[in-house]
Amino acid sequence: MSASLTAGMNESDREQLQECLQRLLASGAILREDHRDLYDWARLHREAVDELCWLAGLKLVWEHDNRLLLGIPQHPRLLRRLRQDETLIVLALWYDFDRQVKDEGRTPEDVGFRVREFSEQFEAKFRHLQLPATTRLLEILHLLEKKSVVRLSETAGPFTDILIRVLPTIRYLVPFSALDEWTRTRDRHLAAGAAGDDVGAEQQG
C-alpha cells in the first residue's frame, strides 16, 4: 500500500482501508445496514478510499441516500461473465425493482417479493422459457446475494416463501435508463435462448 496514501493513518485506519477494498472486490458494495462502522469510516476517509480503489481498477459510486458504496470494475479482468439463466434472472429482478419504484411508489430500500411471486412474473416476462429448476434458482439467488444485488430472508420455510429484497445496486448492474432498453435486451436474450446460444451479461467477479 502506498506510503503517501496512508500517511497520517494509524494501524486501525489502514486495516479499515484494506477491508474496504477487500469487500468491494469480493461483493461489489458496502451497505451501511450490513457494515455500519465500515461504511461510516469510508465516508470520513473518502479520498483515501477513492484513490486506493482507483488503483485497484474500481470506480466508486457513493449513494448516500441509499447508504451504500458501490465499486464498478473498470477492467475486464475484474468481470465475471454471467450465464444465460443468470442474466435472465437479473433482468427479471431489474424489471420488478423498476416497476415497484416507478409504478407503485416504493422506495428503493423497500422493494421485495416472495419467490412464488417472482416465479409467476418471470413466466409472464419470458414466454416460452422455463424458470431454472429450484436448486439452480436458489444457487443464482445466493450468487446475487453474495454480490450485494439481493437479500434473502425467511429462508427456513418452503422455497416459494423465501422473501427476495432487491437492492438499489441492481440499477448499476443493469444500467437501463428506460423500459424500452430493457425490452430490447430481453428480446435479444430470448432470441439467443431460442437459438441455444449462451449470451450473458458481465458482473464483477
Largest sheet: 3 strands, antiparallel
Helical segment tally? 8
What structural class do the secondary elements suggest?
alpha+beta
User: Portion of residues in helices?
Assistant: 40-55%
**Can you name the CATH architecture of the largest domain?**
Orthogonal Bundle
CATH topology of the largest domain: Arc Repressor Mutant, subunit A
Widest sheet: strand order? 1-3-2
Report strand %: 15-25%
- Rg over CA atoms, rounded to whole Å, is 18 Å
How would you describe this structure to a colleague?
The protein is α+β, with helices and mostly antiparallel strands and 205 residues long. The protein has 2 domains: 11-74, Arc Repressor Mutant, subunit A, CATH 1.10.10; 79-204, Winged helix-like DNA-binding domain superfamily/Winged helix DNA-binding domain (Arc Repressor Mutant, subunit A), CATH 1.10.10.10. Helix content is 49%, strand content 16%. The chain contains 8 helices and 8 strands; from the N terminus they run αβααβββαβααββααβ. The chain has helices at residues 11-27, 36-44, 46-55, 84-102, 115-125, 134-146, 170-173, 179-195; strands at 29-31, 58-63, 68-73, 79-81, 112-114, 150-153, 163-166, 202-204. The chain has a 3-stranded antiparallel β-sheet. A hairpin with a 4-residue loop joins strand 2 and strand 3. Helix 1 crosses helix 2, helix 1 packs across helix 3 (46-55) and helix 4 runs antiparallel to helix 8. The chain is elongated, with a radius of gyration of 18 Å. The model is unreliable at 195-201 (pLDDT under 50).
